[in-house]
Design brief:
Layout (H helix, E strand, L loop, with lengths): L20 H19 L3 H12 L11 E10 L2 E11 L2 E10 L9 E5 L12 H6 L5 E4 L14 H7 L3 H9 L4 H19 L9 E6 L3 H10 L4 E7 L6 H4 L21 H6 L6 E4 L11
Parallel strand pairs: 4-5, 4-6, 6-7, 7-8
Antiparallel strand pairs: 1-2, 2-3, 3-5
Length: about 290
């Protein structure tokens, strides 16, 4: 068999000057980095390009959601209402709305997003209840593909690499969409709902977003594109950059957090830097394998 091989060791990469797809991606990214820096000299034009590439609609262009109550639980100091949010035809998101029993709201409402599901921090004496007890309305939502809408990852090593909702992410890509864009629109519509239904809060109403894990990428897009709606964004254990994905040969569970062609115009740190100082707080940013870089 060795006599029939055409390349050293039977591998094309053994040829002098051979490059792998990973090598080519590294070179391409280096060229695009210069292009991105030039584009972001004009922040307004750059953000317009972000909206064009992602296809994220403005909140004003989307229908107002319909909230359907499905249950209520009383806790000491707050009420927890279970609701279904209809964003548009065929799109329903489960949510929990925490309302402080003290009618004097101390601050603006909070949109709480957790990749582990809305119920993860909604436990008795948990982080969401603690926010509500300070006098804030808190809406904890399962964005599409999280919590009750999750399609679990496949079995084996490939399933772990691709992550949950892999089939849906592929179908979205084939339709010219991305999970990032769809989830960012979820954030915008849910924020507008909070804006509309929190008239008792101090004026003017501005939304604080808490985004944990995989929800961080779409939340960052939503806040960067319509910053006037939001008072602040807290990102916890979210992906730090798409460049880190390019430089990781076998990244894990990043399929839902990518936007095709985005690095031609921007990376996640560009969006974060577009926000005013003090409006964004990032803790525990993760690399492409879900680890916190040292």
């Amino acid at each position: 068999e060795e006599k029939l091989l055409c390349t050293p060791g039977g591998r094309v990469l053994g040829l002098t000057g051979a490059k792998s797809l990973v090598d080519l991606n590294h070179e391409w990214e280096a060229r695009l980095a210069v292009q991105r820096r030039n584009l972001w000299q004009d922040r307004v034009a750059a953000l317009a390009e972000v909206r064009r590439i992602t296809g994220i609609r403005a909140a004003s262009e989307m229908p107002e959601l319909v909230a359907v109550p499905v249950g209520k639980t009383e806790r000491s100091g707050c009420t927890v209402e279970k609701i279904l949010l209809k964003l548009e035809a065929g799109i329903w998101l489960p949510a929990l709305r925490f309302e402080p029993k003290n009618s004097a709201h101390s601050a603006g409402p909070v949109l709480y997003l957790n990749a582990a599901g809305k119920e993860a921090d909604a436990v008795l004496d948990g982080p969401i209840e603690a926010l509500a007890l300070t006098g804030r309305t808190v809406l904890a939502v399962d964005l599409r593909g999280f919590g009750e809408t999750l399609h679990p990852q496949g079995k084996g090593e490939l399933g772990a690499l691709l992550g949950a909702n892999s089939t849906e992410a592929t179908l979205a890509y084939l339709l010219g969409k991305s999970f990032v864009a769809m989830r960012a629109e979820d954030v915008l519509v849910c924020s507008r709902y909070l804006f509309r239904t929190c008239s008792a809060a101090p004026q003017p109403v501005r939304i604080t977003v808490v985004a944990k894990g995989e929800t961080g990428v779409p939340a960052l897009h939503a806040v960067a594109l319509e910053p006037e709606v939001f008072s602040g964004l807290s990102l916890e254990r979210a992906l730090r950059s798409w460049v880190s994905v390019v430089h990781t040969p076998a990244s894990e569970n990043q399929k839902n957090s990518l936007v095709f062609g985005a690095l031609r115009a921007y990376d996640l740190p560009d969006l974060a830097a577009s926000l005013p100082t003090g409006k964004i707080n990032i803790t525990g940013a993760l690399d492409a394998n879900g680890h916190t870089p040292r």
